[in-house]
Amino acid sequence: MTDPSRIVRAVAGALVVGVALGFLTQYLQGELPGNWNTLANSGVVWVIVAFMVTAAWRLPTGWSALIGFITLFGALTGYYVSARFIEGVTSSASTMAVWVLAALVGGPVFGVAGTWWSEDGAVRSTGTWLSSGGESDRAEARLWHLSRSVVAVALLSAVLLAEGIHFLWRVENKHASGRLELIAAVLAPLSLAHSSRDRVTGFLLLIPLGLLGVAAYGLLDMLLAA
Predict the structure, then answer these.
(1) How many other C-beta atoms can be found within 10 angstroms of the C-beta atom of residue 41?
(2) Are 172 and 223 in contact, with CB atoms under 8 Å apart?
(3) Contacts of residue 111, Cβ cutoff 8 Å, sequence gap at least 6
(4) Is the pLDDT at 138 greater than 50, yes or no?
(5) Pairwise CA distance, residues 61 & 12, whole Å
(6) What would the mean pLDDT of 37-58 be, rounded to a whole number?
(7) Can you tell me the distance from the alpha carbon of 166 to that of 161, in angstroms, rounded to the nearest whole number?
């Protein structure tokens, strides 16, 4: 059973980190040079922070999903409060609703991913990847190795790939930041995977997950333009 005081600390910590992230985002948008200020308001940066927060706490899946959402909701709160009361800029209710919806999806997904990665779940493709347990010597020899930590790294890499493509394709004069994210998408499995076999599987998952991410960015653009 999870210690309730640990849950309270995790919730409070996620909220503080999220609000600080929102304020920092608003500040850096005005400080970074033109080709790089897009990164200050990057969805990838926000979900990476949610990933890192839950990776640090290693809570059960349900709590990790909640902590991920709280981190992103705190970031939205910090961003819009600083925009309104420091910069004097207001946003429409529909725009804020779209970003809250994005936090409801992205927060839990990357919150759970952070915990999966930190725990290095021993779930293999020989059975169901939602269950845990041992695996046979034959399975150990296979190149394909689907575990929770592999899926977590692939998700992180895929969102970097998707936003990098989005910057290159849809955002004018922001191609340097887009190229940087594409490089990071390749480096993520290399640096975060726990074994060579995990790296191979991570790269294989990157293609379908990256395409899904590109579609998600397209949907987000449509919602914001509506």
Answers:
(1) 14
(2) no
(3) 50, 51, 53, 54, 64, 65, 66, 67, 68, 69, 71
(4) no
(5) 18
(6) 91
(7) 9
**What would the pLDDT profile of 166-191 be if each residue is shown by its tens digit?**
888 887 766 788 899 999 999 999 99
Query: Sign of dihedral through CA atoms 141, 200, 194, 210?
Result: negative
Task: Kindly state the tokens that stand for 215.
Answer: 């579609």
Rounded CA separation 15/17 (Å): 6
**Chain position carrying tokens 């269950």:** 131
Which band of pLDDT confidence, cut at 50, 70 and 90, is reported for residue 127? very low
Q: Which residues, at least 6 apart from 183, have a Cβ–Cβ distance to it below 8 Å? A: none
Q: Which burial class, exposed, middle or buried, applies to 119 when counting CB atoms under 10 A from its CB (0-12, 13-18, 19+)?
A: middle
Q: Which residue has the tokens 């910057």?
A: 167
Q: Please, what is the angle between helix 61-85 and helix 4-31, to 10°?
A: 40
Q: What is the mean pLDDT of residues 48-73?
A: 96
Q: How far apart are CA 206 and CA 219, in angstroms?
A: 20
Long-range contacts of 124-131 (CB under 8 A, 24+ apart): none
Check if the beta carbon of residue 79 is closer than 8 Å to that of residue 99: no
- Chain centroid offset of residue 88 CA: 29
pLDDT at 145: 63
Please state, as a whole number, how many other Cβ atoms lie within 10 Å of the Cβ of residue 140: 11
Tokens (6 digits) for 154: 């692939």
Residue 125: both structure tokens together: 């493709």
What tens digit of pLDDT does each residue of 64-107 get?
999 999 999 999 999 999 988 877 777 788 889 999 999 999 99
